[in-house]
Write a structure and sequence with these properties.
By secondary structure, the protein is α+β, with helices and mostly antiparallel strands. It has helices at 56-62, 67-77, 82-86, 89-103, 110-113, 141-151, 227-230, 246-252, 301-306, 320-324, 344-352, 380-383; strands at residues 31-36, 44-49, 52-55, 117-119, 123-126, 134-137, 167-169, 175-177, 182-183, 186-189, 198-201, 205-206, 209-215, 234-241, 244-245, 266-268, 273-274, 282-283, 308-309, 312-318, 330-336, 363-365, 391-392, 398-399, 407-414, 422-432. It starts with 30 loop residues before the first strand and ends with a strand. The mean pLDDT is 97.
C-alpha cells in the first residue's frame, strides 16, 4: 500500500524538511487551515513541510499544475478542506503525489513555490475543517482497566467492553485548535456519599491523551459501512485532548454517561496527517486468544493483517511556575496506539452498523491511550491513582490534578526501521481560572 511518496530517501528543496527527528518531512504532508497571524486574511488550506507551510492559495496562483490537480486545489485555496476529504482515496493520492513531486529536490516547480512558503511561527491555525459531530470512543483497554479498578476493584471492565467499541456523543461546538486556553469548568460536585452536591469550579481537572480520526466520505442514512470499506471513509488523524472534570463526572455520569464533565472543551492539533501518510506504519492487529473474538461485522482478514498503526504518544506538562522560571515542559508519560483494543475500521463499522450516517468532517476520538506498564497512563487519574499518589515535578511542585496556569502538550509520531519518521505537531492548551 506504500508508493514513491513514502520513500525514506526523498529529500525536499525546503531545507528544514530534511533535518532529522522532525514531524513534517516530505513523507508526511499533512493539511491544516491557516492565515498569517494578525492579518485578518481569508483562511486557506496549507501543507506543513519542515518548519514551513506551503500556502495552497498562493501555490495555486503562482505555480503551474496539471488540470486534475488544479481542480483539487481550488477549494483548498478558499479554505475548504471538505471537497478533498469527501473525494475519496483516489483524489487524496492524486494530490499527495503532485505535492510530493513539487516539493522534492530538483523539482521544476520549486522556484515558483519558494514564494508560497510561510513560517509556521507566523501562521495562525484554526480547526482544519468544520466539525459537524463528535463521537468519543473508549478503545484504550489499559486505561479502561486502570480507571475501572479505581471504582470497581472486583470488575474493572464491564461485560460489554470486549464485545463492542464503547462510545458517547460529544460536543462539537467546544472543540478548539491547539494553542488556545480554556476556563476551568464549574458544575455539581458531591464530596461524599452522604453529602448534598454543591456547585463550583472543578477541583479534579484532568487531560486525556487521545487520537482523533476525521471522516472523509459520508455514508447515507440507513446504510451501514462494511468493515472492509470502513477505513476508506477516513481522511486522516490528529492528536486530541478530551479534557475531563473528574469530580463533576463522578456525580453526573450514571446512568447516561459524560455530559458537563466533558463538553466544556476538547483540544485538537491543527494538522491532519492523512491515512496515506500513515501507510508505512501499519501492523497486524491481534486479540488475545482467550478474549471474545469480534463478531463478523467487526472482523476481516485485512483488519487483522494491518488494522493497527504504530503511533507513539506522549504527554508533557509545564506549570505556571516552570514557565516563569523559563523551564521547559516535562514529560509525564508515553504510550502507543498499537495497544488499542479496537481499530479505526472497527470504530467506523460499529458507528454505522445501525444505519447512523457519518458526514465529512465528523470527528471520532479514540479514547485515552494508555500502556500496560506503570507510568504509561494517558491521564492524571491513572498516574496518581485517583489523586492518592501525587506526581513530584521540577522545583518540588506536586500534581494530583491540573491547577490554573498549567499547560499540557500532547505529541505523537510514527517511526520504524527503514521508514522516515513523521509526526503530528503539538496539541497544547493552558488551564485558565474559572469565570
Amino acid at each position: 500500500m506504500t508508493d514513491a511518496t513514502h520513500d525514506p530517501a526523498l529529500r525536499s528543496w525546503v531545507p528544514s524538511a530534511n533535518a532529522g527527528g522532525i514531524d513534517f518531512p516530505i513523507q508526511n504532508l499533512p493539511y491544516g487551515r491557516l492565515r498569517r497571524a494578525g492579518s485578518g486574511e481569508p483562511w486557506r488550506i496549507g501543507v506543513a513541510i519542515g518548519d514551513e507551510v506551503l500556502d495552497l492559495r498562493l501555490a495555486l496562483g503562482q505555480c503551474p499544475w496539471d488540470a486534475s490537480v488544479v481542480e483539487l486545489l481550488v477549494p483548498l485555496a478558499e479554505g475548504d478542506l471538505v471537497p478533498l476529504m469527501s473525494g475519496g482515496a483516489a483524489a487524496r493520492r492524486t494530490l499527495r503525489e503532485a505535492l510530493s513531486q513539487a516539493l522534492r529536490e530538483g523539482s521544476e516547480q520549486g522556484p515558483f513555490l519558494e514564494l508560497c512558503l510561510l513560517s509556521q511561527r507566523e501562521a495562525e491555525m484554526s480547526l482544519p475543517c468544520r466539525i459537524g459531530d463528535f463521537t468519543d470512543f473508549y478503545t484504550g483497554i489499559h486505561h479502561a482497566t486502570a480507571v475501572g479498578r479505581l471504582f470497581r476493584p472486583d470488575q474493572p471492565l464491564l461485560p460489554n467492553y470486549k464485545w463492542l467499541p464503547i462510545g458517547y456523543h460529544g460536543r462539537s461546538s467546544s472543540i478548539r485548535a491547539s494553542g488556545q486556553g480554556f476556563a476551568r469548568p464549574s458544575g455539581q460536585i458531591r464530596a461524599g456519599a452522604d453529602a448534598a452536591p454543591e456547585f463550583g469550579p472543578s477541583r479534579r481537572l484532568d487531560y486525556e491523551l487521545e487520537l482523533g480520526a476525521f471522516v472523509g466520505q459520508a455514508n447515507a442514512l440507513g446504510q451501514p459501512v462494511p468493515i472492509d470499506d470502513a477505513e476508506q471513509r477516513l481522511f486522516g488523524l490528529c492528536l486530541l485532548n478530551d479534557w475531563s472534570a473528574r469530580d463533576i463526572q463522578a456525580w453526573e455520569y450514571q446512568p447516561l454517561g459524560p455530559f458537563l464533565s466533558k463538553s466544556f472543551c476538547t483540544t485538537v492539533s491543527p494538522w491532519i496527517v492523512t491515512m496515506e501518510a500513515l501507510e508505512p506504519y501499519r501492523c497486524a492487529w491481534t486479540r488475545p486468544a482467550d478474549d471474545p473474538q469480534p463478531l463478523p461485522y467487526l472482523d476481516s482478514a485485512d483488519n487483522r493483517a494491518r488494522g493497527a498503526i504504530e503511533i507513539t504518544l506522549g504527554v508533557w506538562l509545564q506549570t505556571a511556575a516552570m514557565r516563569e522560571r523559563g523551564e521547559p515542559a516535562v514529560q509525564l508519560s508515553q504510550s502507543s496506539f498499537r495497544d488499542a483494543y479496537w481499530t479505526l475500521a472497527q470504530l467506523v463499522a460499529h458507528h454505522t452498523s445501525n444505519g447512523c450516517n457519518l458526514e465529512p468532517g465528523d470527528l471520532l476520538g479514540t479514547g485515552t491511550q494508555s500502556g500496560p506498564q506503570p507510568g504509561q497512563g494517558g491521564s492524571l487519574l491513572e498516574l496518581t491513582q485517583g489523586g492518592k499518589m501525587p506526581l513530584t515535578l521540577l522545583g518540588g511542585e506536586t500534581r494530583s490534578f491540573l491547577l490554573d496556569g498549567d499547560s499540557v502538550v500532547l505529541r505523537g509520531w510514527c517511526q520504524c526501521e527503514g521508514r522516515a519518521r513523521i509526526g503530528f505537531g503539538e496539541c497544547a492548551a493552558t488551564v485558565l481560572k474559572a469565570p
